[in-house]
Amino acid sequence: MTETSTKPYLIRALHEWCTDNGYTPYIAVAVDERTVVPREHVQDGQITLNVGTLATNKLVMGNDYIEFQARFGGVSRQISVPVNAVRAIYARETGQGMAFEATPSEQTTSAGDAGRQVPAEPPAEDRPALSAVPAPASSKDGDDGPPEDDPPPGSTDASQRPRLKVIK
């Protein structure tokens, strides 16, 4: 028997955490042929969706798909997102949340690149470490994140921004 992925459970848990704390849960989604979203809002093969209770109707967060109705430009649309396509879930107000790695089948195609090979992500050891909570003031032994005095590329102040942890 195949073991069920932890990803849909983590997405539901973080959605609940955001809601319980009065935050707005957003999901970042890699759009492909199985993703039903308004294509006019897709940028660079991705879309960010508000999945808060006030922004959605009939929200169902299943193990395979996240489905709901939402308004875009005042028009109600049916949204269907494969859980595998979710790249991150986070609180809009704080940025706290969790990022996910692409699965092998998702690394080779995207909606804008159908039939064309897209480079896979670099190995985990070559990517910056991410964590689900703001970085502590001082680095602890065993911390696999970058040193405090070495902020991630492109950031101006690493202590002001939360870091996300990649979950396989």
Reconstruct the topology from this structure:
Elements: H1 7-20, E1 25-30, E2 46-50, E3 57-61, E4 65-72, E5 75-82, E6 86-91, E7 97-100, E8 166-167
Parallel strand pairs: 7-8
Antiparallel strand pairs: 1-2, 1-6, 3-4, 4-5, 6-7
Structural account:
The chain is mainly β and about 170 residues long. It has one helix at about 5-20, and strands spanning about 25-30, 45-50, 55-60, 65-70, 75-80, 85-90, 95-100, 165. It has two domains: about 5-120, Roll (SH3 type barrels), CATH 2.30.30.220; about 125-160, no CATH class. Helix content is about 10%, strand content about 25%. Strands 2-1-6-7-8 form a five-stranded mixed beta sheet, with helices on one face. A three-stranded antiparallel beta sheet has the order 3-4-5, with helices on one face. Strand 3 and strand 4 form a beta hairpin. The longest helix has 14 residues, at about 5-20.
